[in-house]
Amino acid sequence: MTSTAGASEWRAANRANWDERVPIHAAGSYYDLPGFVAGNETLRSFERAEVGDVKGKTLLHLQCHIGLDTLSWARHGATVTGLDFSAPAMAVAAELAQQIGVTARFVPADLYDAPGALDGQTFDIVYTGIGALCWLPDVAEWARTVAALLAPGGFLYLVEFHPVADVLADDGRTVEEDYFSREPMVVDDPLTYADPDARLTASLTVEWRHGLGEVVSALADAGLHLQFLHEHDHGHFRFPPGQPVPQLYSLRAVKPAAPVGRHLEGP
Length: 267
Prior knowledge:
Distance between the termini: 63 Å
CATH topology: Rossmann fold
Radius of gyration: 19 Å
Strand content: 15-25%
Largest sheet: 7 strands, mixed
């Protein structure tokens, strides 16, 4: 990790990094695009159970990368839109949709610009998958953006790496980071998790740590009502099995179907 110098250029640095990852991820075995085209499922069983039946629902996947989870929801019957700031990722996702015969819309745009990029469209479900929130500096603005993208009565479903797990070393037991730090983490690393042999030239990235309370409070402040928050003791790719720590969390938060008016007492 380097110092926080250069953090103000986070968007350009992160986009360049993820643009360069796209062909590596599309060609490698980690995402296994041939297997996906053949019918492999990318969603975890608890995700499908917690979201429920998506047939006939409109679903927006924020920060969708190359769209495998987006298209998996389409296979389960949703009308899907994927959004990501990487145009090369959106091109790969659109090509995958054609290969599997699924209708899907993929929009290259920054998350914070999503309402305008989607022409004010709202959705029954907004979905955000694992490894997304760390790339955003302002989780409160993220929550307000999600609320703007939801139709009344719609819900956000988020599944994410647990922030406790993110402060642990690869052994899953040793604390090596400060849970409460909200400073930008500027990292210069040419590697990508999907291919240990690949080397990136756009190696600088900027990430942020967001605590569980911060995320839940941001959603509440944005007017969404939490239905559940579940913690999972499995699913983190870095850890050996059997680690007694929360590794993932999932939550569902609903946008009220109608604003609740204040009750005014008479004299």
